[in-house]
Amino acid sequence: MDLLPRFGRLARRQRLLAWWLFGTFVAVVSLTPVPAIAFGATLAPHATATTASPGSVGIRLLDVPVSEANDPRARLYIVDHVAPGAVIQRSIEVSNTTPSELMVALYAAGATIRGQSFIGDAAHTPNALSSWISVSPAAPKIPAGGKGRAMVTVAVPADAPVGEQYADVWAEVRTSAGVDAGVTEVNRVGVRVYLSVGSGAAPVANFSIDTLTAQRSAGGSPVVIAAVHNTGGSALDLSGTLQLTAGPGGLSAGPFPAALGVTLAIGATEPVTVALDQVVPSGPWLARITLESGLTERSMQARITFPASGTSSAVKTVATHRRPDAMNVATLVATASIIAAAVVALLRRQVRSRRPRRPQRP
After folding, report:
1. 207-319, what's its fold?
2. 178, burial (CB in 10 Å: exposed 0-12, middle 13-18, buried 19+)
3. Mapped to the 3 state alphabet, what secondary structure does the chain carry?
4. pTM of the predicted structure, to 2 decimals
5. In this predicted model, what pLDDT tens digit does every residue of 145-196 receive, in sequence order?
């Protein structure tokens, strides 16, 4: 006789489950990112100087070690951590888009990091790392419109000092302006080499974004300067974007690309510049900057207002809390739907199992 009350309790459970699922859906939708009003263009692909433009010579890396396959830097540069006495090799490709066959000199020379730049030393200036590097063939002839391959070998001495060192592998072409002119023109393009020497695991890359500073350029355009500190054990090649939200009238703007080509030495603190469109209002804004180097990424934010001219005071940043992206939201909704279907099916099965069986006729 108590079947109906029990059925009523089960039906009430289904209603409560439905309301819970509806509330979950509303919460998920509220977390879905809303497209911003874009004053700026999207981030362009990172450009490199290794690809040959029409009428020039180019050089690029062909292979990446399995351990570094997911690191974007290792696809552009020779990046590795090795023990003293190790030998590593990388294949490179040299291309010639000129209408003439060219003899290309392939060699290594020293490099340093100064300020925000990775700088190749003049001419054939050596350093310790470049003295460990050989290229074969050293002077290939590349046909007009053709390509050639070469092997870069880095033989690290057994007594090599521990630490990170830098060099360039250059492809150089010399052309004469004429016998009477007495002038030789030298053009070269290169692949960077970041080599860390030491036993055990590779040094961990890490950095902090300490402050954001709003300023106006000489032409009146808004600019954001991020103070970035390399707190890890390897040099950084930084790229990223800046997003503005919670602006005047609820406006959003961006993303705006950070200036490319910023290389940060170990322990150094350098500015990373983000130039904005001139139409961006003064604010106030909530500025969120995301920078990355290889697989290391950091996001920080601060409240800023662009001055009428000059530079405002630096504002200390705080960590951002990212909303789930569309893929995560879709996964969450699908998982909730599967769980809900399973629970409803279980409740229905319980209801059917509690129904009285009809007496069978004799």
Report:
1. Immunoglobulin-like (2.60.40)
2. exposed
3. CCHHHHHHHHHHHHHHHHHHHHHHHHHHHHHCCCCCCCCCCCCCCCCCCCCCCCCCEEEEECCCCHHHCCCHHHHHCEEEEECCCCEEEEEEEEEECCCCCEECEEEEEEEEEECCEEEECCCCCCCHHHHCEEEECCCCEECCCCEEEEEEEEECCCCCCCEEEEEEEEEEEEEECCCCCCCEEEEEEEEEEEEEECCCCCCCCCEEEEEEEEEECCCCCEEEEEEEEECCCCCEEEEEEEEEECCHHHCCEEEEEECCCEEECCCCEEEEEEECCCCCCCCCEEEEEEEEECCEEEEEEEEECCCCCCECCCEECEECCCCCCHHHHHHHHHHHHHHHHHHHHHHHHHHHHHCCCCCCCC
4. 0.71
5. 999 999 999 999 999 999 999 999 999 998 765 555 566 788 899 999 999 9
Tokens 């705080």 correspond to: 318
Q: Class of 57-197 per CATH?
A: mainly beta
